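[recover] target loaded
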């Protein structure tokens, strides 16, 4: 049975300006499939190779796969749907499969707007895809499709979702097939070396309101650090990888295993061969302040901190559980340990103004991170914050939900003014860094790394691919009133998806009402017991501090 995976060709001028990133999802799926006997597997990385739809049509027609699988995050969903539409035309006998975070939560939307998608894989793919491919190979598809957990599909004009599959419990049993990728094409520009994105854990115990990771992976699981280092060692020795980024939302959550991971890297001499970076929280840097130099010894050279917002009000809205003053101290600690630090700011909420944008610039310059990034608030349609703000959302063209396009329009600014304010922050920050910091400060490695980052920015800036500036027509402050963000206004939320949202909201409201009723009943019974009960000396029952009423629940 022939299987073809395709990574859709979607670009936004965001993360890809730093290099070409290997799509790890296909390695993990391919490894799991090969393990159970599937060996005729092909992969087309349409994004890295910038393949046209015409090219894909030719390749699909030539390969004639039995199954074609595509993944998508929210901004790439239409590109992924188009790949499967092309497959319908040029390989009509192939089963068309879509996976990824967007389709997992928005399957009713996807199946409504792209009915040519045969089946959606909801959640972690390794075990579900293996079961699905086995059913196709053994002739059990489509007769037994309702028996396979973790799927969604249209059956007799009805959108059906089978029960959710369990999360993958044995992460150490997953053996990715990294040979499926064209490694010479995945280059990290700042260091001009091959880059990989392995993962040490899945899930996140935190519930930031703007994030979907904790919803997608559900429970938090950590791999054996030695197994992770085995994988990295193979990537270094067999694929000549010189830099990796751990894909985890926050790999330092499990402090014990993160330390073991660093110890294993050092024991095998890998820091001399490969450097690496992570995303993490300010609170973890505080916790590990005495270990930061040890982390640097293990090869950690780049930390991206989710400082998120300069205004404490915004930090509270995002449920970040950090304080503004902690951000500055965390950045100082990292720089003292010779670890390059990148501060991430989220901008573009309803209360954004020219003054608050300028405040984030002043904060960034005061804190002195090595790098700073201003990301447009992007309301993932399956997050709690989206549900809170959905009445303010005017754009349902998901291809623009990419952290660089101002989806939300602040009350006091136009989208053009918002983009111009962000570009002004970038210009001021990096011009001063380029002139007065990068060429003159730090060790040889630090200087080389930062100049490499500057090269990546300049390359994207001259090509006007950074933040999609060329596409929207931004040429400087003088153009901010004439920008075209190319929103497809025909895109709307499908009726089936809207009904699903409303049902979920009603369910949540009823659950909240039940909790409130139970608390009220408990208080009433406590009051009745207090009224009937007397101390042996006849004294009245008093609450702590001598009051007659208990403190209200927070």
């Amino acid at each position: 049975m022939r299987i073809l995976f395709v990574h859709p060709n979607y670009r936004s001028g965001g993360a890809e300006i730093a290099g070409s990133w290997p799509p790890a999802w296909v390695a993990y799926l391919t490894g799991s499939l090969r393990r159970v006997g599937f060996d005729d597997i092909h992969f087309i990385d349409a994004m890295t190779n910038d393949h046209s739809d015409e090219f894909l049509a030719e390749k699909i027609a030539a390969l004639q796969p039995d199954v074609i699988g595509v993944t998508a995050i929210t901004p790439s969903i239409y590109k992924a749907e188009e790949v499967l539409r092309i497959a319908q035309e040029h390989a009509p006998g192939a089963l068309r499969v879509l996976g990824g975070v967007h389709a997992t939560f928005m399957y009713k939307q996807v199946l409504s707007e792209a009915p040519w998608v045969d089946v959606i894989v909801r959640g972690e793919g390794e075990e579900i895809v293996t079961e699905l491919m086995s059913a196709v190979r053994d002739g059990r598809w489509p007769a037994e499709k309702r028996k396979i957990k973790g799927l969604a599909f249209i059956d007799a004009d009805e959108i059906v979702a089978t029960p959710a599959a369990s999360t993958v419990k044995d992460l150490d049993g997953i053996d990715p097939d990294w040979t499926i990728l064209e490694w010479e094409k995945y280059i990290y520009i700042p260091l001009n070396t091959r880059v990989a994105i392995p993962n040490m854990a899945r899930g996140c115990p935190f519930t930031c309101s703007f994030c979907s990771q904790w919803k997608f992976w559900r429970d938090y699981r950590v791999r054996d650090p030695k197994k992770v280092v085995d994988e990295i060692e193979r990537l270094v020795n067999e694929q000549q990888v010189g830099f990796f980024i751990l894909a985890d939302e926050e790999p330092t959550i499990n402090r014990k295993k993160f330390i073991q991971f660093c110890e294993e890297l050092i024991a095998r001499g890998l820091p001399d061969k490969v450097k690496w970076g992570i995303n993490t929280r300010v609170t973890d840097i505080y916790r590990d302040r005495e270990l930061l130099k040890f982390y640097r010894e293990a090869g950690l050279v780049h930390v991206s901190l989710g400082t998120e917002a300069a205004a404490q009000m915004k930090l509270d809205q995002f449920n970040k559980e950090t304080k503004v003053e902690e951000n500055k101290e965390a950045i100082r600690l990292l720089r003292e340990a010779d670890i390059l630090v990148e501060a991430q700011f989220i901008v573009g909420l309803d209360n954004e103004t020219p003054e608050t944008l300028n405040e984030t610039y002043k904060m960034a310059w005061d804190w002195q991170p090595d790098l700073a990034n201003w990301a447009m608030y992007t309301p993932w349609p399956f997050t709690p914050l989206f549900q809170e703000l959905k009445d303010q959302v005017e754009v349902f063209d998901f291809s623009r939900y990419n952290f660089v396009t101002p989806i939300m329009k602040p009350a006091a600014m136009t989208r053009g003014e918002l983009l111009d304010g962000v570009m002004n922050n970038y210009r001021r920050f990096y011009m001063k860094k380029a002139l007065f910091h990068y060429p003159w400060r730090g060790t040889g490695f630090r200087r080389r790394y930062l100049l490499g980052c500057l090269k990546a920015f300049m390359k994207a800036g001259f090509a006007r691919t950074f933040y999609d500036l060329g596409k929207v027509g931004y040429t400087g402050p003088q153009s901010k009133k004439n920008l075209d963000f190319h929103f497809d206004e025909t895109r709307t939320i499908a009726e089936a998806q809207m009904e699903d949202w409303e049902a979920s909201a009603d369910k949540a409201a009823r659950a909240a009402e039940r909790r409130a009723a139970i608390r009220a009943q408990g208080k009433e019974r406590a009051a009745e017991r207090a009224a009937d009960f007397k101390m042996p000396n006849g004294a009245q029952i008093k609450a702590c501090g001598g009051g007659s009423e208990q403190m209200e629940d927070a």
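[recover] notes: The chain has 19 helices and 16 strands.
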